[in-house]
Specification:
Number of strands: 8
Order of helices and strands: EHHEHEHEHHEHEHEHEHH
Number of helices: 11
CATH class: Alpha Beta
CATH superfamily: Aldolase class I
Shape: globular
Largest sheet: 8 strands, parallel, barrel
Distance between the termini: 26 Å
CATH topology: TIM Barrel
Strand content: 5-15%
CATH architecture: Alpha-Beta Barrel
Length: 306
């Protein structure tokens, strides 16, 4: 279990992806959406509203929160909650510029923009299959003996990550908080130091992004624990497949923030659903602090005999 320094807080971000279809239908009059009231209940009771801006150039056959819907939602709720936008798409620069045009600079410090580390890959035709986001190109290249092919794959990976880095730097220059998301199969070793330095926030995906109904991949907890033990100074979040039963082990792995969607938004009474989640978080924090206090006392006791 990852050791915590008292006191600590776990932030709750609520994903409203489940509301997107109805919001899109009512984008010109959001107050007509059947989720309108729930949006305010969520905004008033969570730390962040999480919006997945998805395009089919990154997640096959899926487009969610088209422009300008995601900023219409932001405009509606910006005084109630902070926001994080997960740009699950390639070519993020036009979206960043669109946000710059719509959002005053003094508001941007309360907004996180998250880019997938696997985005912006531009493969040649024969390599399209292995360069999808589910595959870690760095890891694939390490297992290829044929030098020309290995170089070609690493070039695709490095060029894509260069674009991510440039966009992260630009996002920070614009006044936003920066983040990267990491797919379950992506190794931390393949992410360059410059990218870590340009990042404020790490979002570990608990499932493959863009696919509903998946179970949380528990091996992600080991990755979180490894990261939090060796690298400090980042806010660590987890998104995808997070439910009440999984909250304790995810927090104990080292997460500082949880992104939770359907576990909350599928309920008619979202305020009560959020309360239940927050209670589970508080109970987990209490358990961690009690166990650490017991461990400290035991260490002190044993020290008397050394």
């Amino acid at each position: 279990m990852h050791d915590r320094i008292e006191p600590f807080k776990i932030n709750l971000a609520v994903s409203i992806l489940g509301y997107e279809e109805d919001l899109e239908k009512n984008k010109n009059s959001l107050n007509k959406s059947r989720h309108y009231r729930n949006l305010f209940e969520i905004a008033e009771n969570c730390d962040y509203i999480h919006i997945d801006v998805i395009r089919d150039n990154f997640v096959k056959d899926i487009n969610r929160f088209l422009s300008p819907l995601y900023l219409e939602v932001y405009g509606l709720l910006r005084e109630k909650s902070e926001f994080e936008f997960h740009f699950m798409l390639n070519d993020q620069l036009p979206h960043i510029n669109f946000m710059n045009f719509k959002i005053d600079r003094k508001e941007r410090e309360k907004i996180r923009i998250i880019l997938p580390i696997e985005s912006n890959r531009k493969p040649e035709k024969p390599l399209e299959i292995i360069t999808k986001k589910e595959h870690d190109l760095f890891q694939i290249a390490q297992n290829i003996a044929y030098a020309p092919l290995k170089k070609k794959i690493l070039d695709i990976d490095n060029n894509a990550k260069k674009i991510v880095l440039e966009n992260l730097i630009f996002i920070k220059q614009c006044g936003y908080k920066t983040g990267i998301s990491i797919e379950p199969g992506t190794l931390l070793e393949g992410i360059q130091e410059e990218i870590w330095k340009a990042t404020d926030y790490i979002l570990f995906m608990g499932v493959s992004s863009g696919k509903g109904g998946q179970e949380y991949k528990k091996e992600v907890n080991k990755k979180i624990s490894l990261f939090s033990d060796f690298i400090s100074g980042y806010n660590i979040s987890v998104d995808g497949g997070v439910n009440l039963e999984l909250i304790p082990e995810i927090i104990k792995s080292g997460a500082d923030s949880l992104v939770i969607g359907s576990c909350i938004t599928n309920n008619e009474d979202v305020r009560n659903a959020i309360s239940i989640v927050k209670k589970k978080i508080r109970d987990t924090i209490d358990e961690i602090m009690i166990n650490q206090e017991k461990a400290s006392k035991r260490i002190a006791y044993l020290a008397n005999f050394s």
